[in-house]
């Protein structure tokens, strides 16, 4: 995967001005093209439990592979602009939201460097819930822990290899606890219901 190819995770668990969470994800995908982000592939939509437990209604999640002639920071800025356009207001971490667009990876880049990426990847859960990095960390430091990212990502980029750990998306997804994998339910038809 070239460094002008980006892995994106999408999620929502609150209605937005455009509709229910699945409709909001569909609208976000349309807006990506308007922002110069070319869709290469999109996973099915999945229903997944909110994390942490009790933090809100179930989410609708998906992943996409995009191409753009832009830096990771510029792609992230475009994703944030789409979130804002769809009504996202950032107040606290891991809260219920109308839309969440996460930049998961930019090709095989490790940002800002291998040491910082490894430190954030190893951060204990209690610190993850409180701390936010001051700079873009890629690949996303929680990628290997999130079934709601890995299961849809395995549909569209199964062979992408984490540049720091060497593990493929398929390998990371297989290592998830069975209960976590079973908690993700595809929406049928893909993305049409909520």
TrEMBL record:
Return the Pfam families for the record. Answer: HPPK
Superkingdom, taxonomy of origin: Bacteria
Q: What InterPro entries has UniProt attached to this entry? A: Hppk (IPR000550), Hppk_sf (IPR035907)
What name has this protein been given in UniProt?
A: 2-amino-4-hydroxy-6-hydroxymethyldihydropteridine pyrophosphokinase
Under the heading PANTHER family, the entry gives: 2-AMINO-4-HYDROXY-6-HYDROXYMETHYLDIHYDROPTERIDINE PYROPHOSPHOKINASE
Which pathway, per its entry? Cofactor biosynthesis; tetrahydrofolate biosynthesis; 2-amino-4-hydroxy-6-hydroxymethyl-7,8-dihydropteridine diphosphate from 7,8-dihydroneopterin triphosphate: step 4/4
Domain 7,8-dihydro-6-hydroxymethylpterin-pyrophosphokinase, residue spans? 8-158
> What is the organism of origin for this protein?
Paenirhodobacter hankyongi
Taxonomic lineage of the native organism: Bacteria, Pseudomonadati, Pseudomonadota, Alphaproteobacteria, Rhodobacterales
Tell me the CDD domains matching this sequence. HPPK (cd00483)
Q: Which SUPFAM superfamilies match?
A: 6-hydroxymethyl-7,8-dihydropterin pyrophosphokinase, HPPK
Keyword list, A-Z: ATP-binding, Folate biosynthesis, Kinase, Nucleotide-binding, Transferase
Q: Record's family?
A: Belongs to the HPPK family.
Q: Which GO terms describe its biological process?
A: folic acid biosynthetic process; tetrahydrofolate biosynthetic process
Q: What does this protein do?
A: Catalyzes the transfer of pyrophosphate from adenosine triphosphate (ATP) to 6-hydroxymethyl-7,8-dihydropterin, an enzymatic step in folate biosynthesis pathway.
């Amino acid at each position: 995967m070239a460094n002008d190819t980006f892995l994106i995770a999408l999620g929502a668990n609150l209605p937005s001005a455009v509709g229910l969470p699945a409709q909001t994800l569909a609208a976000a995908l349309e807006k990506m093209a308007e922002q110069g982000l070319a869709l290469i592939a999109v996973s099915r939509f999945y229903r997944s439990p909110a994390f942490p437990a009790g933090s809100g209604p179930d989410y609708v999640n998906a992943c996409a592979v995009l191409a753009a002639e832009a830096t990771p920071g510029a792609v992230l800025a475009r994703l944030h602009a789409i979130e804002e356009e769809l009504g996202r207001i950032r107040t606290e971490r891991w809260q219920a939201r109308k839309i969440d667009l996460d930049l998961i990876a930019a090709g095989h880049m490790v940002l800002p460097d291998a040491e910082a990426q490894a430190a954030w990847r190893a951060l204990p859960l209690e610190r993850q819930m409180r701390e936010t990095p001051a700079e873009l960390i890629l690949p996303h430091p929680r990628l290997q822990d999130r079934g709601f990212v890995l299961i849809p990502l395995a549909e569209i980029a199964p062979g992408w290899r984490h540049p720091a750990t060497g593990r493929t998306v398929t390998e990371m997804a297989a290592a998830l606890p069975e209960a976590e994998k079973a908690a993700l339910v595809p929406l049928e038809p893909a993305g049409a219901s909520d």
